Amino acid sequence: MISPSDVETSSEPTPDQAVVASVLRVDKSGQRVRRMFSSIARRYDLLNHLLSLNIDRSWRRFTTRKVFPAPGDRVLDCCTGTADLALEYARQSGGKSPVVGVDFCREMLAIGRQKVERTPQAEQVILVEGDAQHLPVPTSTFGVVCVAFGLRNVQDTRKGIDEMIRAARPGGTVAILEFSRPRGRILGRVYLAFFRKILPRIGQTLAPNQDSAYEYLPRSVLEFPDGDAMLALLAERGLVQLEQYPLTFGIATLYLGRKPIPQATGATA
Ligand SMILES: C[S@@+](CC[C@H](N)C(=O)[O-])C[C@H]1O[C@@H](n2cnc3c(N)ncnc32)[C@H](O)[C@@H]1O
């Protein structure tokens, strides 16, 4: 179950969101989430591109252009899944930035590895099995630490953010691409109707699974902090120079923050 602390930073819910939140509580236990993604892994890419009308590709491209690794910087893609963001980074940097992708779902990683092997930058991308709450990477190592549509699924959101910050080098960027709620009243209602009623049916038809993965999707998005609430959470965890970029009417948002550079104490003998 999501803990109350995961939602306490959310902005004031609209009546629709309040109804949804009161009825639904999302089970984000690692076991459930891993099982869910393993059962849809083979159809994941197809559904992602279909349900978003391919717009998800442009969101990842926007992310890699906005947060371009400095020469020599390494990139860490948390909850990498089938490695789309990791591969986009490898492509954009022309293979100059080593990219590590971490995910705890073996089946998603297996698809990702097949894709990596087919690219010219295969040597620069490593995919590793691991939990985003205990990243199997050294501290203060990566110039860019990113996650696309993954943080929302991590059981303890704060632990996930803290681990991203730990992995980033001082001055490095933490980039979180995640679904958000479009702000306009009409668009918000249309989106909610599509998200809650139509998308789960399409998803379940094309990728049948026992965990109702495509009902979980809207539930987890509606319970997750977005906009200023997400920035407040990132500030609380210690990131600075926070920015947010709503994409496609705010259906997704890219959140950025920097890991502070420790100040020299200046003490001299
Ligand atoms: C919606 S997919 C996103 C995949 C990919 N980042 C993308 O852009 O398409 C979410 C991924 O997060 C992974 N995930 C969820 N919780 C995780 C955790 N605690 N540790 C590692 N991976 C996790 C799932 O296994 C899944 O592959």
Describe what you observe in this structure.
It is a single chain. The protein has 269 residues and is of the alpha/beta class. The chain has a single domain, classed as Vaccinia Virus protein VP39 (Rossmann fold), CATH 3.40.50. The chain is 45% helix and 18% strand. The chain contains ten helices and seven strands. The protein has helices at residues 4-7, 15-23, 30-51, 55-66, 84-92, 106-117, 157-167, 185-206, 213-223, 228-236, and strands spanning 75-78, 99-103, 125-129, 142-148, 168-179, 240-247, 252-258. The protein has a seven-stranded mixed beta sheet, sandwiched between helices. Helix 5 links the parallel strand 1 and strand 2. Helix 3 packs across helix 6, helix 4 packs across helix 5 and helix 8 (185-206) runs antiparallel to helix 9 (213-223). Residues 1-11 have low confidence and may be disordered. The chain binds S-adenosylmethionine. Residues 30, 33-34, 37, 48, 79-81, 84-85, 103-105, 108, 131-133, 148-150, 153-154 line the site of S-adenosylmethionine.
